[in-house]
Amino acid sequence: MRIEIWSDVVCPWCYIGKRRLETAVAAFRQAHPDAEVDVHWRSYELDPSSPRVPTQTVAEHLGAKYGGGVAGGQQMIDRVEAVAAEEGLVYRLGGAQRANTVDAHRLLHLAQEEGRQGELKEALLAAYFLEARNVADHDELTRIAAEVGLDQVRVKEVLTTGEYADAVEADVRQAVAYGATGVPFFVVDQRYGVAGAQPADVLGQVLERAWAESRPALDVVGGADACGPDGCPI
Q: Does the global pTM surpass 0.85?
């Protein structure tokens, strides 16, 4: 089973959705120990216009965009932080900075080739939401990538070029083709789409349905006039 998730590393619901998916996959694997589950992270930029050098905190940005100033922005943050806490995530989103994520996404494509995409995805989300680190800063990105075992020379090579930019753009185009208007957006076996950070039981139902339809049961007709372990009736 292949699960693709379109998300951004500065999307608060994407981290919540990741935890809920992990809960659903754990339950699914327990029910189907012979099942192979391949989780693949796809790129999606919520705000490509975000600056590479941050100038606002998330609270300031939300307050300016939706009204209410910093206090209004913090109220919105408080609501999502309460939901995150239910998944064991202690957000520091109010102090996080609004930052461009294209370089983080390019590194995720590098990590995919190195077999460390899942680890880097978790590290980037934790760095931003739990530690309020700047995921647009190249030095910070290099440190985060090194923490999950990526070669620093190779990481710096990617960051100082446009490598994997086409892969990021291709992911975004595919999301649009699927009809995704926001993230997280889950696609199972290229057949089932789930929009938003749905509860773990909802995600689990989709996994079960995909699994059942990939292994259709036969309608057996008859049964007599056949040989079996006990011999052949004559």
A: yes
